[in-house]
Design brief:
Blueprint: E1 8-11, H1 15-26, E2 31-35, E3 48-49, H2 51-59, H3 64-68, E4 75-78, E5 85-89, E6 107-108, H4 111-124, E7 129-131, E8 133-140, E9 145-151, E10 160-166, E11 168-171, H5 178-183, E12 187-191, E13 197-206, E14 214-218, E15 224-229, E16 237-243, H6 249-254, H7 256-267, E17 273-284, E18 287-291, E19 295-296, E20 299-301, H8 322-341, H9 352-375, H10 388-393, E21 413-414, E22 451-453, E23 476-481, E24 495-502, H11 516-520, E25 524-529, H12 533-537, E26 546-550, E27 556-560, H13 563-574
Parallel strand pairs: 1-2, 1-11, 2-7, 4-14, 11-20, 21-27, 23-24, 24-25
Antiparallel strand pairs: 3-6, 4-5, 8-9, 9-10, 12-18, 13-16, 13-17, 14-15, 15-16, 19-20, 22-25, 23-26, 26-27
Length: 581
Amino acid sequence: MATCAMPILVVGAGPTGLTAALTLARNNVPVRIIEKELQHRRGQRGAGIHPRTFEVFHFLHVPEIHERATFFPPLQEHHKGSLEPLNTFSMAPYKEPAPAIPYYNSKAMGQPTLEAIVREHLAKLGCTVELGTRLVSFVQDEKCVRVKIAKNYGDDREEVEEDIEVAYLIGADGAKGITRKQLGLTFLGSTREGDCMVLGDIRLEAKGLDRDHWHFFGAMSQDMVTFRPTDELGKDGWQFVMSGRAVDPKGLVRDEEALVNCIEDFVGLKDDVRVKEVMWVSDFRPNIRMVDKFGVGRIFVAGGMDVACAQFSVHTPFGGQGMNSSVQDAFNIAWKIALAYKGLSPASLLDTYTAERLPVIAEMLGFTTELYDRSFNRSDEEHAVESGLERGMRRSEKMYMLGVNYRTSPIVIDEFAPTPTSGVAVVHNAYGDGQEGVLRAGDRAPNAPGLTPVASPSRTSAASTHMFDIFGSTHHTVIIFAPTLASPVVQSELVRRVVVLPGSASGPDGRVEASSEVDQAVDVEVLVDHEGHAYRGYIVESQGVKVVVVRPDGVVGAIVRGVEGLERYVEGVFGRAEGMH
């Protein structure tokens, strides 16, 4: 096994860069993460976290993000100058967690809080963010990336440049950052120059303005200001968004007094509203843009929306997909780099990053732009049955990203997929809706609770577990669904092996006797699916045999019948099939 002594360099310490760094550190890969700012970033920014992203942090062992995130309050519309509610509605109805989907609701957490949580986990693994350190330039060859960075120690001291060699570079420094520009990636798309927004964090004193709703004053098609309460900023803290044709975003960002006057004017409640402090502010213009590929050689870019339009697949904020898709970009490339870095996979595995993520981002830009246009439709809104705000802010389950898939990836194997009909074009939806009762290679792997370990003479009985607690960012998981105990069909240090038996395999007392052969395989887990969630979620007949491979990112890499299919998958990811019998 070839290994490398050089670290991986991550440029940018927002959610994207931190996710990449944590994934690498969890895989025992040395990593440096640099941030050009002298202090950690401020600003709630994109605060919506969707179910698929909570799953990423579950696999990275960061439970605090879901635990501390809060539900979005109902939205409430007001005319300018009035606290009388015109309409109150929720963006999406609350959904009870399901066996296959333990995280079924979007929640809110400002990016400073999220980033602080991830930094704490990174620090426990010996990695800290190097503040005041910017990327200057880089060159690469087939062996490494030679990078020049500059450290700013503050106090008017001169920057100190440092030349380093790294194995790979992940640029999470945005569309305006050095990585994309020097890599020469084409940034395709357009900017809505006529539309602009100002958003920020404030402390607000507002008589009669309750903290149980997300308040919207005015119409989205005209002048509007919104206030979302967030205790992350204090008991009088609010995140605001202001839009309007007459808004001068650059001017308001520079002139705090003008910003305060504009906010108070948009609300129209005169002395009943007073901005006590502007904590952070930025401007935003909708960009419908993405790069044409996500990497060249040993250098990759990752990241989606930034409120200043400064990351790669720059989206409107109305889909709430930007930060979430950025985290998933980072997770996708980081586990692959970890394998390549350790010499466990060929460099060709890294090419699948673009192949898998580009269709997802392209499709996401399409429907979030459609949502934005619908939200700001300036046609005769007075006669609409539903307000423009409600049309624009209603969220379908598609937004949860549970249906995002890589079915067309060159490394996924599915021996159970239906054969395409001759002459009929197959339309691939990379942002699928996650249909119940359908599971294909490339889809999100479902959870399954209630899996009971098999007791044996050498193994004491343990508490039941979840499939999600078996998956992890450091390994593949091979799940063998079989009606009776048998020796696993794969022996490899590269995977975690699990045999799942149907509930019918147990006796009246719920026990299953383990054979001596299986008992000797101390690194193989044998579980009984007493409640049937695993067999239902993975579409397995109770007496059927199916082998499912789940990747480190929680994606189904293969659904096969046995050794031959496993060999094909292992060869595609690891470049060789070893330990298969």
